[in-house]
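note to self — DONT lose this again. spent like an hour looking for the file last time. sequence + predicted structure for the chain T wanted, 186 res
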Amino acid sequence: MTRVQRGRGGWVISSRGMVGARVAVMLLAILAVAGCSSKKASAVNAPGPGSQLGEQNQNPSSLSQFQNGTLGGGANGPLSDIHFGYNDYTIQPQDDSVLRSNAQWLSAHPQSRVQVEGHCDERGSEDYNIALGAKRAQAAKDFLVTLGVSPGRISTISYGKELPLCTDHDESCWAQNRRDHFAVSQ
């Protein structure tokens, strides 16, 4: 209870602040209970029942590779990664053929979708690297769209510097981490 001055009438004791706090706590409790779900989350990039996409044809996401302890383990799929210069998100001339090959594979497999993952090296803040990774992923998506891949089949995500392939602190390692990875799913 708090004391509140009511004009010339002097001070009165009000419990209005306590009621507001109680309502806020009750709303938070209701939201917490309503947010709980008994459904199991489906696995990301897992082929559905009856899927024809075999393990040898799948590029697992960097996150699932990280969770399985296989990130950077040389898992080869149908799509190849591209790399970027320091603090850059423009497609390099040497990556033109890689992206053309990726677009050809996607055109030959119209049931497949791809998630373009933007990655950065360890330098820079988390916020900066998330933004840079998003620009890198969007640049690759835009390039694939110009090659005829439907934009509805391509999604983008930025992992920034959170899922590095290499953890050494030198330029050759950082160059490996500045990449776009293409994770294929159905």
